[in-house]
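Just curious: can you write a single protein's sequence together with how it folds?
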Amino acid sequence: MRLLHTSDWHLGRSFHGVGMLDAQQDFIDQLVEFVSTEKVDVVLIAGDVYDRALPGVDVVRLLDDALVRLTDAGAQVVLTSGNHDSAIRLGFASRLLERGGVHLRTRLAELDVPVLFPLDTAEDGPLLAIYGIPWLEPRLVAEQLGVEPASHFEVTRAATAKIRADVATRASGRTVHSVVLAHTFASGGISSDSERDLSIGGVGAVPLDLFDGFGYTALGHLHGRQSLSPTVRYSGSPLAYSFSEAKHRKGGWLVEVDATGITDVREVRWDAPRALAVLRGTLDHLLTAEEHAWAETAYCQITLTDSQRPAQAMDKLRARFPDTLVLGFDPEGAAAATTTSYSSRLAAADDDLSICCGFLEHVRGRSTDESEAAVLAEALEAVRLGEMSR
């Protein structure tokens, strides 16, 4: 059998204000083509199918279309809910959908209810058992799982213990190979800027050894594809959802399994519809350097290093890089600049013009030029004469 490990589709998400439904449709097209060409038997989705608990109608329609096309291509689908999903809404009609090959694991009661696949034709032959651990909010599930304190470690340990007990029961008299989907932050994983924090101070990270003994653990939550061990991996998100992911190679994992267990795991890659560019330099250099020509069709995050903040910087940059989405300023020599607070500089100003010029410099990040200072001086003089005429 062939399993395709994916996660964190985040259907409905935007990228710095740019809608991504078209890009997500492109990913689904690639996914369906891969499933059909490579004869994938099961598609795994380890949580965060949607980007929000109440997705829009067009987003729900996109998932509906994806599930129909995947099952039409010959694959079954096993998915869990993530911290962005509403487990109740995503799990709606799960028993009915199961008849069509879509297996939802979003409820605590289903932790030890696997999706079973025979690995040969013998009646008591080896089985593949796929379990799903949805996102477990400790405060909400600790009591139901009978654990104290309510922590990510304790609820995950209780969930994996229930699965191990079920595997042991099924393995009495036959071979059972287990695959576990889990949406969580496992120790050793490398995060990016687009993931929602699961807790404060890293307390949400669960130790890797909680997944010892399973044939393969398909993790979701972190958006970079990575291997934490030969049997515990993150597929990452299919698309980049922050500029911190600009160097990611998006994809998933194709897992081969037969009667002897997991035999092979290999990378799968998805083509990105748009490149991401993280550029840094002075405005003049960025507008003229040939080395940045490739970024003219990319989504861009640009940091200007000019000692003075250039006027109309965004307009000028977008003339060359139309899809500049984020603009920042980090002036050269800023670390050596004065650290005097604005209020201190304000207190030291010796006249009204200095106060006005200082305010402009504070909010714009560049000094007032001669023409601007002249306009301010004229305005101040008009105010002074108006007060004298009262």
Notes: Residues 275-337 form a domain with the Barnase; Chain D fold (CATH 3.30.370).
